[in-house]
Design a protein that fits this description.
Layout lengths: L4 H35 L2 H15 L2 H23 L4 H33 L8 H38 L1
Length: 165
């Protein structure tokens, strides 16, 4: 075991935990939060989601969301530098899945929808239609993030175990 291996294994394990945490948050939204908001009167659900979206862009979620990507990429690089064999490819897989399915979908799919929803007033004539479309589209995309987080967590976990053994 080279000198970097314990650090690389630790970072890979932290990446697994981070991806699992972020995927779990997204799972909670897909599994019941969005359904609860959809069951509320439309303008109440819309206003509540606007509040959730404002609250989400704060350090707890942002550090977990983007920190996991940075730590996972660093872990993959350290495993490669350390010559950790197959563990490198598991970590790279975790980083790629996390980047595409979690971060990429967040930036490319959810952020534009959240910004559009922020511009909808609860008294706007099309508010109910906009909210209904938002809930359906946003939740479908969120399923991708939840599964992506879980898959990335598993890949990072396998990478850590493989490097350890």
């Amino acid at each position: 075991m080279d000198a970097l291996t314990p650090v690389a294994i630790g970072l890979t394990a932290v990446s697994a935990l981070g991806a699992g945490l972020v995927g779990g948050v997204f799972f909670a939204f897909s599994a019941f939060v969005m359904q609860g908001l959809a069951d509320a009167p439309p303008t109440a659900g819309l206003a509540a989601m606007q509040g959730v979206n404002r609250a989400a862009v704060r350090p707890p979620l942002m550090v977990a969301l983007f920190g996991t990507l940075l730590v996972g990429a660093a872990a993959a690089v350290l495993l490669a530098v350390d010559g950790a064999g197959h563990a490198v490819w598991w970590a790279v897989g975790g980083a790629v899945v996390y980047l595409g399915a979690v971060v990429g979908v967040t930036i490319g799919f959810h952020v534009p929808r959240n910004e559009a929803l922020a511009r909808v007033g609860v008294d706007d004539p099309d508010a109910v239609v906009a909210w209904s479309r938002y809930v359906t589209e946003w939740t479908r995309g969120n399923h991708v993030r939840a599964v992506g987080g879980a898959l990335a967590a598993a890949l990072f976990g396998v990478a850590a175990l493989t490097a350890l053994l």
